Amino acid sequence: MRISVDPEQCYGSGDCVHRAPSVFTQVDGLGAVIPGRERALDVPRVREAVEGCPAAAITVVRED
């Protein structure tokens, strides 16, 4: 599983950064996953950030 933020959907609310600052950051005003943290689903607040993203820009992609 891999976390990603769609820059086309994100409008930079920063909600993800506030919920899970060890996984998300802002780059050029938009949400982004911190490099190397793309698989950090074990961080308790990541799922909350995914579900609470007001732009629905964060996804968890299954890697087969």
From TrEMBL:
It comes from the Bacteria. GO terms for molecular function: 3 iron, 4 sulfur cluster binding; electron transfer activity; iron ion binding. The lineage of its organism: Bacteria, Bacillati, Actinomycetota, Actinomycetes, Kitasatosporales. The keyword Iron applies. Ferredoxins are iron-sulfur proteins that transfer electrons in a wide variety of metabolic reactions. Its cofactor is [3Fe-4S] cluster. It comes from Streptomyces rochei. Keywords: 3Fe-4S, Electron transport, Iron, Iron-sulfur, Metal-binding, Transport. SUPFAM superfamilies: 4Fe-4S ferredoxins. This is Ferredoxin. InterPro entries: 3Fe4S_ferredoxin, Fe-S_cluster_ET.
